[in-house]
Automatic annotation (TrEMBL):
InterPro entries: C-N_Hydrolase, C-N_Hydrolase_sf, Gln-dep_NAD_synthase, NAD/GMP_synthase, NAD_synthase, Rossmann-like_a/b/a_fold. One of its GO terms (biological process) is 'de novo' NAD+ biosynthetic process from L-tryptophan. Pfam families: CN_hydrolase (PF00795), NAD_synthase (PF02540). This is Glutamine-dependent NAD(+) synthetase. Its EC number is 6.3.5.1. HAMAP family: NadE_glutamine_dep (MF_02090). It comes from Rhinopomastus cyanomelas. It comes from the Eukaryota. GO terms for molecular function: ATP binding; glutaminase activity; NAD+ synthase (glutamine-hydrolyzing) activity.
């Protein structure tokens, strides 16, 4: 009867400018889709060149190589007898567009340019592309000679159109268009489009996945239809982790769900669906049918091909599934672990080195690496040949098979406790015990000789010897002596990363991992060019609160009992002298604020777009039960003063896994000055005036200007 259609969508671990690897993964996904009976295959956004090409999109080479890959796809036997929908940049009339190229049997059916470009947060599409602004309009696109020689076509349709096959009608959306208030699927659905496709380049953020799923399901809940979403996965060369979650939805219900985190480079979802389910669902929605009768029609590209078979009565169709969301702790365990694995194998290094202090942040980083080792062993156990080949290259063994995460961890992960005279035995023991439980190759060293040598040089040159404040030194001396220790740790980390494997008779070097959390970066509670300066940082976009919850998750799921004492200890930098052998310095006292407060400040500053005055106004209500207006003002002023003084540190922030929407990452996400007037005189005066008004209304004696 021609009512059961079989369609495929996928999640691919593409890599920016890796045209050969990208081509191989695309072809593999098409092969899998065809082997499962699919007649239509959808891929991620800009999958041919990789989404994260950034300013390489300006280069003519990127366009040339994309068309070269397209020619290979058109010629490939794998792409015959299946409609293939691939993503690439296209130059039309000297304007660059982010496009879908849809083809069948060596003929291009349609080039569909993106209409709504993503240009917020981490996205800068308007920098490289222009949105197609001609609704329901199609032009002729003159194909380059390399494509003409394969297809025999001189021109093809380019623009906002839909495909009409022998049995149904398909319309394309591209990523951001699903999130736009006037999504194309609304009008397309009213015009009779039954299958919607969305090719995405959507990255992971903690607690975001449900939003994407809800948007896809709601797209067809009100209007009926089949919705396919493809997404990129993995680290394609920068701070983002694209988290897959390919899915297929029918009439508001999910019928196929892909994984959010996995080490599989190619994941294909195939579903067989009944078109009559869409038609009967739409039939009883009278408001939809009234609107459909007045809609402006889309140009239709006729395709002499069917997604169904004529004899399909006995073909089983897919039924709804319950979407399973990961908890935030699971997301932290899996997302950064997969990102680290991609970075390790693609950088062709031999492992990681982490300065392990025995505190929550570095311990959480160690647990993420341990989780990565779990994922690798599981992938190999499940038959992932790509992961096994990468493992063997990394450990320099052609016969090695990773079976035990602890044993594999010892091969690829080195931890180092860098003690000074200010370090406590407790943190040393915690670091050692955690290293034993995860299996890392652990080093204990004392760096006092290096610290004394550096300070000694200063004393010889100046004739002055700085002292800690507990010994009568000034705050400047105290801070300088702390910074010397912190910076020497960075130098030692890189030295050991370069030569540790050499001392063990093994080839290669190690990537240095940083472990500053998002809250510390926001406040600037770190030494510039200390251990926060590393090659990459898997927790740099994660809050202290979430990291504590993650540590508890690791205690329960990985049986890492060493984490219990780490959880109960107050966070400390251990850079000031001990008092009677005990730590006297704590992070929250040093910062003048709690980590819980820092998370609130961060979300208000970035997500709520609040400056000092707006933040004060919001916190007046949020903290009215615990703080007076004057106390709120004091806290807000202190935060913004410290933020402004330390913002320059963000210019050298180690590339971090992006996980929070209030990240202070200066590279792309949070674009701000790094030289501020730290007095905030106008803004703080507005706060003072408001405090005085409130105190007058409440009959409180006005105080001095708020500190």
């Amino acid at each position: 009867m021609g009512r059961a259609v079989t369609v495929a969508t996928c999640a691919l671990n593409q890599w920016a400018l890796d045209f050969e690897g990208n081509l191989e993964r695309i072809v593999r996904s098409i092969d899998i889709a065809k082997s499962k009976g699919a007649r239509y295959r959808l891929g991620p956004e800009l999958e041919i060149c990789g989404y994260g090409c950034s300013d390489h999109y300006y280069e003519s080479d990127t366009l040339l190589h994309s068309f070269q890959v397209l020619a290979k796809l058109l010629e490939s036997p794998a792409t015959q007898d299946v409609i293939c929908d691939v993503g690439m940049p296209v130059l039309h009339k000297n304007v660059r567009y982010n496009c879908r190229v849809i083809f069948l049997n060596k003929k291009i059916l349609l080039i569909r340019p993106k209409i709504s470009l993503a240009n917020a947060g981490n996205y800068r599409e308007l920098r490289w592309f222009t949105p197609w602004s001609k609704a329901r309009h199609v032009e002729e696109y003159f194909l380059p000679r390399i494509i003409q020689e394969v297809t025999g076509q001189e021109t093809v349709p380019f623009g906002d159109a839909v495909l009409a096959t022998k049995d149904t009608c398909l319309g394309a959306e591209i990523c951001e268009e699903l999130w736009a208030p006037n999504s194309p699927h609304i009008e397309m659905g009213l015009d009779g489009v039954e299958i919607f496709t969305n090719s995405s380049g959507s990255h992971h953020v903690l607690r975001k996945a449900h939003t994407r799923v809800d948007l896809v399901n709601s797209a067809t809940a009100k209007n009926g239809g089949i919705y396919l979403l493809a997404n990129q996965k993995g680290c394609d060369g920068d701070r983002l982790y694209y988290d897959g979650c390919a899915m297929i939805s029918v009439n508001g219900e999910t019928v196929a769900q892909g994984s959010q985190f996995s080490l599989d480079d190619v994941e294909v979802l195939v579903a067989t669906l009944d078109l009559e389910d869409v038609r009967s669902y739409r039939a009883e929605i009278s408001s939809r049918n009234l609107a459909a009768s007045k809609v402006n029609p889309y140009p239709r590209v006729k395709v002499n091909f069917a997604l169904s078979c004529s004899d399909d009565v006995a073909v089983p169709t897919c039924t709804p599934v319950q979407w399973r969301h990961h908890s935030p702790e699971e997301e932290i365990s899996l997302g950064p672990a997969c990102w680290l694995w991609d970075y390790l194998r693609r950088s062709k290094q031999a492992g990681f080195l982490l300065p392990l202090s025995g505190g929550i942040d570095s311990s959480a980083t160690a647990c993420i690496v341990y989780s990565m080792c779990h994922q690798v062993c599981l992938a190999v156990k499940n038959g992932n040949g790509d992961v096994l080949a990468d493992v063997r290259r990394i450990v320099n063994s052609e016969t090695y098979v990773p079976e035990d995460p602890r044993e594999f961890c010892k091969r690829v992960f080195t931890t180092c406790y860098m003690a000074s005279e200010n370090s406590s035995q407790e943190t040393c023991n915690r670091a050692k015990l955690l290293a034993e439980q995860i299996g890392s190759y652990h080093i204990n060293l004392n760096m006092d000789a290096a610290v004394k040598a550096v300070v000694g040089i200063f004393s010889v040159v100046t004739g002055r010897t700085p002292r800690f404040s507990v010994f009568g030194g000034s705050s400047r001396e105290n801070l300088a002596l702390q910074n010397v220790q912190a910076r020497i740790r960075m130098v030692l980390a890189y030295l050991f990363a370069q030569l540790t494997l050499w001392t063990r008779g093994q080839p290669g070097g190690l990537l240095v991992l940083g472990s500053a959390n998002v809250d510390e970066s926001l406040r600037g509670y770190l030494t510039k060019y200390d251990c926060s300066s590393a090659d990459i940082n898997p927790i740099g976009g994660i809050s202290k609160t979430d990291l504590k919850n993650f540590i508890q998750y690791c205690i329960e799921n990985f049986q890492l009992t060493a984490l219990r004492s780490i959880m109960s200890a107050p966070p400390t930098a251990e850079l000031e002298p001990l008092v009677y052998g005990q730590v006297a310095q704590t992070d929250e006292v040093d910062m003048g604020m709690t980590y819980a407060e820092l998370s609130v400040y961060g979300k208000l500053r970035k997500i709520a777009k609040a400056g000092p005055y707006s933040m004060f106004c919001k916190l007046l209500h949020m903290w009215k039960e615990i703080c007076s207006p004057r106390e709120v003002a004091s806290k807000v002023k202190h935060f913004f003063r410290m933020y402004a003084i330390n913002r320059h540190k963000m210019t050298t922030l180690t590339p971090s896994y992006h996980a929070e929407n209030y990240s202070p990452d200066d590279n792309r996400f949070d674009l701000r000055p790094f030289l501020y007037n730290t007095a905030w005189s106008w803004q703080f005066r507005c706060i003072d005036q408001q405090v005085s008004k409130l105190e007058k209304q409440e009959g409180v004696s006005p105080g001095e200007d708020v500190d």
